[in-house]
User: Fold this.
Amino acid sequence: MSVEPLDFESLKDEERGLLNDTDLHILTLFESAISSSPEFNVDEKAKRFATDLVASAPDRQSGTDAESYVMSTWQVLICIASRISYRHYGQDVLVRIVGMLDAAGDMWKGLPGFGISMRDSWNHSPTFELDTEDDRAFTLDEWLNLNSFVARLFSTTVGRFINFAIWELRNGLEEDEHDVGTTSITDTRVLIASEWIVQSGRRLFRESLLNSLSTQPEDATHGSPYRGGSLYSGVKGFSLERWGFWKRRLTELRKDVSESIHVSINEAVEMMTQIEMEVANTYH
Assistant:
């Protein structure tokens, strides 16, 4: 787990950064909190930011201003998450912040607009072909970082991100890597799938045991968001069959990705085996 100092200067850049005073104010609050001490203290730093953020929020009676402040908060946190390395403790600080805001009540209760903001970010994935004029597209590293954040949230059951898990595991493990594009995109997709397993493996296994989303309707209105990729023909949603496919596929992909990705693949496979053993041992 990295504890290196964080640099958010790129978020202050006029081309790809945060452009209004409210966004920059929220970013400053986070910078102050995360650098408040050299200690590795997730709870303390999260509490400082959440407390300062809530204290400086417009009164709910002001209506639109309060709603805009909440939406700005989500956008800033998403941007921050994309700039914090996926193995930096700052990711855990962000997750704790979201939980604290949910518990803060009033205009934060239920995290209004958070899911919408995150879903909008998923329209700018750099692992798909995007409009070259889309200046909000994330870099591959930023996309990995943001996925780590969402996977951690999914693990804690904060927010509703179960569909994001399916999408990223499908992209990374259920499509033919030769059809994806560049080696760097293939590597990133596999890294992201591995990170989802490392950060939220127990939740993923639980949903697999429950066959979650396997009976969701598919029609012109709903589409097929939980279907398998081109290499997986099993039932949609979560299942032990699909869990097993993901595990086998990770092993197969070692020969097709860069050697630098092997560590993450091994970590994900080991996590899956550990979770399976934990469940098996409950019957002793």
Notes: Residues 183-209 form the longest helix (27 residues). Residues 142 and 260 are 18 Å apart (CA to CA). The mean pLDDT is 90.
